[in-house]
# Entry
Amino acid sequence: MLGLARQLVEADRRVTLVEFVLLAICTRHLAREPKGVPPVKHRSLDTLCAESGLVLSLLAHVGKGGRAAFDKGIQAMGLAAQALRPVGELSFGAVEKALYELKLLAPLKKPIFIKGCLETVMADGRPTVAEGELVRALCASLDSPLPPLLDATDPALAARSCSILPASTGK
# Structure
């Protein structure tokens, strides 16, 4: 079933933000994973600079906050300065691989990553529903649920647009 959902999402070779969020949540709940807690592979975010930078780049582009938003997220995580990735590097496959590695981060370090994501989204002081749902999907992928961030009934927040991701070209 998950394979069919992935095929449908990638059929037009573009992954919209809504499709990305839905697929992330479906993967979290439908993927065949071993029972229990995932093993810890990374004890520090320092070993996940590239992966963290890729996910923060996605958030910065979706929220249209650019370099300033990205830098706030990196600083919140205490990571060394790095380059904002161009949109062309943000394929679904690349983000999926980054999230897999981040899922293997020590549980007590995941809140630091999530704080960086929230700082990126909140950089302009006006988070959108789309940004909030993207952060929620990222957290679900990491097995770290996130409480509600935004008032979804606020039409001003819902009206802001979101960008799309190119589909991965292969597995």
Observations:
- The chain has one domain: 2-166.
- The longest strand covers residues 14-16.
- Residues 150-164 have pLDDT under 50 and may be disordered.
